Amino acid sequence: MPSFRSGLVFFLSGLFFAGIFAEVINAQTDTAGAPPSRIKWIDALDVRVIMEEDRRIHYLTGNVELRQDSMFFFADSAVLTQNLLFAAGNVVVIQGDSLTIFGDTLNYNGDLRYGYLTGESFIQQGNSLLYSNFLEYDSHNKMAYYNRGAVLTDGDFQLTSIRGIYNLNTERITFKDSVEIVGEDFLLRTSEMDYDSETSTAFFTAPTVIVQQDSRIYTEGGHYNLETGDAVFFNNPQYKKEGEISRADTMIYSASEETLLLIDRVYYQKDSTIITSDRLFYDSPSQIAIITGNARVVDGSRVIESDEIIYDLEQGKFNTVGRSTVRDEKQELTADNLFYGENEGEGEASGNVVWKDLESGMELYSMQAVFSDSTGSVKAYGGRPLLIYPSETDSLFLVADTIFSFELISPSDTQRITKAYYNVLIYRNDFQAVCDSLTHQTIDSTFRMMYDPIIWMDTTQLTGDTIDAILKDGSISSAFIRQNAMILTSPDSIYFNQMKGREITAGFDDGSLREVRVYGNAEALYFVLDQEDAYIGVNKSECAEIRITLLDNAVERIRFFGKPTNNLTPMHKATEGNFRLEGFNWRAELRPRSLEDILKGTLREGKGEFFGKKDREMQKGGEEVRSVAEIKE
């Protein structure tokens, strides 16, 4: 313990510091102008009073107790002169019910109500304990200052800095220079921070790094509750954990509920899943993310975009609210609402569904659809689904009650198979078709039409039990007709050349019938022309096989195999029965007259954006030909 003489010298030298503090805290003196109260000694084991230069000096030793208003001082020894106090040894200062200050020595100016403690000094308020080897204390404003380092203990955490200001009225501390908070599996570092010891909350006012277990947080603003773990981060907050990264303008974390809210310019990544949006709410126990505002989820090759996405990061399930799109490297699907279950491997789409095959450019429109990204399949139904096959020259439009398309993968290649069934209609400017069901495969661009199929090309009609039509550049290049096969064609829409048999193979050139081969009970009825292209007779032939070459829908050459029979009837002797083979039926009433015909009941009804200038001109020309056919019929 310091001697009275040395302590007095140290105390008197402290008067110089008190003069320095006087200007700084002038405004802290009694605003009412009343003189500050005097420090009074209350008790001591030994008291000596000495007069020096008209000043009375009290030397107090042993269980010293002094008081100024509601503030009490305790020490092993003290020197009191006028309103200046020096205390040494086990110094205790009590102010109010909850504030206690400890120190080795105290220099205190009662007029300024300002002092400083040296040695091992503590401020205890509530559960908080601030330690420093040099503390300045303003008792009038209940403010403590330090600039030689301090440690604040609050529960299981220790907070340290070089400089600081402790407002004991608000229990708020400003830490400056080399600020750290250390706890179990917790470390915070920054250059400046405010701390509310009453709520155990740290407020960040400078770039801050938080390391907690295996996670790392960077922020330039916000607050963190050490007791609850709740936090708000703003000003460039960033979060990083093994396999997990997040950024946003604002982050709000609830430790009790284990939820995270990201607001504005959101970026969140977990393993291979990347989320961007205006807002994201993540529930950690369920691993469900509610993503709103320009929501976008990238999970491997799959991309989901919507106004709102509810996403299960563990299982990959999701559903959307509002117009939404999901796509991968091969396909894209847009709808008013989407639902996908990773375990089942299938998703559902409803409301104005649009599916696209990104490799071929196929587009599918419907009211509802079921899709699978594992098989690349889509099944469209509701609202008469519409399928569009694009080509460089013209698009093919197909509608049916249900359309199902999927990828077929084999060791040698991958192709897309499409099935359409019930009330199938096809429209392209250079041909049209109807059937009950249909299958298309991309590997050879074959359309297999079944159950009463009919194909029209200009004034040519193909019918049979099954028709395989092979397309090249969007147009039919060849067709194979099975069972009850029949072809009708006319050069002038008046008289029809007719070919009939068990099977027929037909070849086309630029939309016109060029070659026909009829097999099995082959029959042909064709009109013979003279050099002036005038009709001179109708010929009916029967044999095992017939091969016919045509030019401009007129017979150019015909060959018979297997004991043919021929019967030529002059035109002037021909009757109605001579002009038709059995089974003749020109079924123009079933033929789609225009694109608008097949769009009825689909999502594209009344919309003409499919038409380019060339499409319109081709459609107009086709309608003129069909109108002639109707008149002649």
Arithmetic mean of pLDDT: 85
What's the N-to-C terminus distance? 129 Å
Largest sheet: 48 strands, antiparallel
The oligomeric status of these chains comes to single chain
Assess the beta-strand content as a share of residues. Answer: over 45%
Nearest-angstrom radius of gyration?
Answer: 47 Å
Give the number of helices. 3
Low-confidence stretches: 1-33, 608-633
Helix/strand-derived category reads mainly beta
Report helical residue fraction. under 10%
Number of strands: 48
Identify the overall geometry.
rod-shaped
Give me some keywords for this one.
633 residues, mainly beta, 48-stranded antiparallel sheet, 3 helices, 48 strands, 7% helix, disordered N terminus, disordered C terminus
Plain-language structure description:
The chain is rod-shaped. The chain has a 48-stranded antiparallel beta sheet that branches. It has 633 residues and is mainly beta. Mean pLDDT is 85; it is low at 1-33 and 608-633. The protein has three helices and 48 strands. Helix content is 7%, strand content 62%. A hairpin with a 2-residue loop joins strand 42 (466-472) and strand 43.
What would you say about this model in short?
The protein has 633 residues and is mainly β.
